Structure formats: structure tokens, C-alpha cells
Amino acid sequence: MKELRVALFTGNYNHIKDGVSLTLNRWVKFLEDQGVPVLVFGPTIKEPALDHNGRLVSLPSIRMPVSGRGEYRVASGISQKAEQELENFAPTLIHIATPDLGGFRALRWAQKNGVQIVGSYHTHFTSYLKYYGLTPIEFIAWRYLSWFYNSLTQVYVPSRSMIEELEEHGFDPGMKIWARGVNTTLFSPEKRDLKWRRENGFDDDDIVVTFVSRLVWEKELATYRDAVQRVASRNKKVKPLVVGDGPAKAELQEQMPEAHYTGFLGGEDLAKAYASSDVFLFPSHTETFGNVTLEAMSSGLPCLVANATGSKSLVEDGVNGKLAIPENCTDFTKKLSLIVENKELRSKMGKASRKKALQYEWEAINGKLLEYYKEALEEPVPVRHY
Question: Are residues 52 and 169 in the same domain?
């Protein structure tokens, strides 16, 4: 068997702290702990948001050219210096996590040099197009994405529902599930803290409805705002808690001044915020999986989420939460009311959430991906095609 030497290409590894960067950093640490050499390639900035794992080689990049997303960068290729680093490292497998120009160049390099190529689908790119007025190019985007990922030997997708949608848009069958895991010791109902609630302005009998994510309008912040405000107008014990930061924060604070805003939280602070809540409300329908939903489940919360790809793989309607029609505030309001008004139901759903989350341990999930890598090494390398 060939030695496994992995070159990972990604559009975000340390400049923004989000689900993709955190997942990939965890993966790189797992590989290194297993004694697998790995080298990461991606855009960099002077003051990154994340202390990254492993060695990171900078790729040339530009700011994402859409309004409200300027903090993200897009790899614009591979510099000569980075290409020399790649050649010196001599990978036996290239993993492309982002199909940008850096990923495209990595694909061509691997095909030219006979190196095995795999990829992972982290961001549901086409679902964001409407937020930037780019719906007319959706067909072209799907053509490129299906061509790109069909050029790879293996493709890893976070959920079965995501696989089904991708196949509908021309992706080849045979994609493999690389689910997301959760630290069930960190994110636990045992972290509930009444003192924390009181210090943050919540009474012991308040029903805290929490949103956790980057604060961008694409995460359906408006649906969260409207649904909570409508339910709270009828039940004064319902209180909103918003955890996260982002370009939409200031505007949301103006529109929803009654909410408590923690800013970005991580580690024990984040675990305490989840467990000290009563309901998790996440209306986003652009997720490929839903890391924050899984963390909320592990923390013992009933989850109200959009009936959309990713989220519906985690939440079973009526069991550990409710599924609502995407972008339908009336439906979210109705289902939030059902959960809020029934304490016994909240308790039952919260316990079911915790039980389901225990199935998503990181060690087993990443161990499976390592098995996929080893299987890919034995497969023929894809030929170059246009």
C-alpha cells in the first residue's frame, strides 16, 4: 500500500472561524495524531481568527466579491512558491475542500502528476446565490460544481439529504457520508447554569430561545427575529438569546433590541450558553449539515429548524424538535408556540436530542474518513478531461 501523504486545499482554514474551518482543523489534527503527513493550502491574512493546526501554505486570494461577505477570501490560484511546496511535499492524495480557482489548479496538478484526488462538499454554494441577486447564474454554477466533483475519485458529503439533492443536479452516485461530530462531553445538559442565566438578564422561569451562528442575513435571521417576537408578544416569558458575531449584528440589534447578544463564544462559554437555553431555533436552509444544531442537540435542547437539506437529517419532526417550512415565518411561529407552551414536550424532545447526538462522536466519524482515504489510494487516478 502507498504511503498516505495528504495535501489539503481549502478556501478557509484560519481567516474566518466557521464550521468549515473548525471541521478541517479538527481533521488535520486527527491525521497528524495518526502519524499521517499533511500539508494545508489556503488563503491567509495578517491577523487570522483561528490558531490553526498543522502547517499552512498561503495561496493568493481576493476578497469575496459580494456585498456583506468581504471578510471571506477566495483563492485565485496557486503561486509558484506554493506549487514548489506541493512538489517538495510529494503528496499521494490531494483533498480539495473548496472548488475555487485554488481547488481547480490543485485538480489539474493532481491529474498531470498522477496523484489521487478526493474532495468534500462543505458549503451549499447555490443556495446563497439569491441573497446576492445571482439567481440567473444558478444553472451555470450547478454545471461547474457537478463537473468539478465528478472529476474526483471520492466525494464526501455531510448528510444523506445533501447527497440526494446533489444527485438531482448531476453529481455522480456513490458519494460517501462524512458527517460532522460533536464533543458530547463539552456540549452537555450538565453545563446548564442558572447563575449564568441570571447574570445575562434571564429569570429562572424564562423560556430562552437561542440562535447560534455567524450573524449574516443568509442564515435567515429575519425569520428568527420575527418568529420569536411574535411568540414573545403573547408570552412575556419568551426571551431571545443570540450567540455569534458578523456583519448583520448591528442591524439585528436595532431591529431586535430586546435580545441578549453574547458575541462570539467558544469552548466552555459556548457550551454553557447552549445548555442554559430552553429552545434552539435555527431557520437557515443553506446548511450542508448543521454543526450548531448538533451542538444544541448534544446540550439537550429541542430544536426548531428549517425542513431543508442538512437540518432535516438531524431533527426528526415531533421527536427531538420540529421541522418548519423554509422562509415561512408563519410556520416557524406556529411551531415555536407549540414547543414554548408545553414544558413536558420540551423536556421530552430535549432528552431525545441528547440521545441522538451521542451517535455522532468525532473519533468514529473521522476514523471512517481515514478508511475512505486508504481505499482511494488503491483506486485508479482519474484521467484529465475537459
Answer: yes
Q: Which helix (H) or strand (E) holds 226?
A: helix 221-232
Amino acid at 378: E
Q: How many domains does the chain divide into?
A: 2
Q: How far apart are CA 240 and CA 195, in angstroms?
A: 17
Q: Is 337 part of any domain?
A: yes
Is 144 in contact with 121 (CB distance < 8 Å)? no
Nearest CA to 248 among 208, 285, 226, 218? 218
Domain limits for position 195: 189-357
Q: Which residues contact 332 (CB under 8 A, 6 or more apart)?
A: 223, 226, 227, 281, 283, 304, 324, 325
Question: Are residue 235 and residue 367 in the same domain, yes or no?
Answer: no
Provide the Cα torsion 39, 43, 44, 45; round to 10°: -170
CATH at residue 260: 3.40.50.2000
pLDDT in tens, 9-63: 999 998 888 878 889 999 999 999 999 999 999 999 888 888 999 999 999 998 8
165-189: pLDDT as tens digits = 899 989 999 999 998 889 999 999 9
pTM of the predicted protein model: 0.72
**CA–CA dist 150, 156 (Å, integer):** 12
| Residue 305, beta-bridge partner list | 282, 323
Quickly tell me which residue has 473548496 as its cell. Answer: 98
